[in-house]
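Hi all, a correction to my earlier message: I attached the wrong file for Cytochrome P450. Here's the right sequence:
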Amino acid sequence: MTERPVPASELYTDEFAADPYPSYARLRADRPVCPVSSPRFDSYLISRFDDARTALTDPRLSKDLYGPGQHYLRIFGPNSEGLNKNMLNSDPPEHTRLRRIVSQAFAPRRIEALRPRVAEIVDTLLDRIVPRGGCDLMRDFAIPLPMLVISDLLGIPESDHERVLDWTQVIRTSGSANRSPEKDRAAVQEAQLRLHQYLTDLVQDKRAHPADDLIGALVDACDRDGELSEQELVTTTFLLLFAGHQTTADFIGNATVALLTHPDQLELLLASPELLPSAIEELLRFDGPLPVASPRIATEDIEYQGVCIPRGSVVGVAINSANRDPEHFADPDRLDVRRERAPHIGFGYGVHYCLGVSLARMEAQIGLGTLLRRLPGLRLGVPVAELRRLPAASPFRGLLELPVRFAA
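and the right structure:
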């Protein structure tokens, strides 16, 4: 059967951005698979846990946006191919080949070796914050922490960190109210072009001056083994740069707000820091940074929950909705840092399961744990209703700012 689309006016509002979970609950109950109109592109949204896991492994839902049909045009726009044609937007065997090349850099043993460096970055950032008694936690901690870590891993020179961060933040905040639509599009396109040119030049520099870093390894895979094309080399670097910091930054912000608005859970965590690993999983389930999985394309007419999804349709899997499905999580709208590790899909599922999961967990544990320990009396600097968030149409769930106060 077919259904009328859920209009953008119901889902892409400031109220939805502040708290999407009542809307997700209504969709799970009444319209678990439904067409949705959005400011960016129309799609079908899957919101229940079982359907979500099935869809994330359904071979009829393709991730190849750059193949026949050029679906990337309606999703990313005409200037996206230089940065977004990468393993995130591809199917096996291309995805398998690209992931294999990069996966060694994210092996748990190699990531664990980064622990002292991550702890050093966390302490350096907090050393600047602690004496002040207050800060914008996004600007001063949550965003720079993973950006510095992934820059080290990739081999981006320290002298370039600030401008690279500026470009990525322009892309991240696309659609925010602080820019008109015309200026927003122009700013994002300019940032994309500058970042693409920078990464292209950086690859050439690594080729001329080989280095023991991830970009150097990718250059070697391109030049010596022929396993990467030049375009794949640049776009893979962009994917690792952006994915390597964006979701972790938003997770730290979301997790901090969740704990500060659930003081009983914050007290539990402060009293029992050994709960931190399981608390990270619960915080990710409760309010994750990636509300809807990156787009998929139906390669044939398919049916979910009695709803026909026509061939060529964009399909979104609502991860944050699935992670609050009462069929799988007891009392799902309650934050419980003692909750037994639940099989959430905050890191995805199937062949596109997050490649950087070990790094993300380590950064979250060190960053959040040290933050809570070194900022006693941590509290929001504004009422929660006044927090400025990324727009509801953003592919990320996060904060533009996070003003906090604490005992200096």
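Sorry for the mix-up. The CA atoms of residues 87 and 95 lie 5 Å apart.
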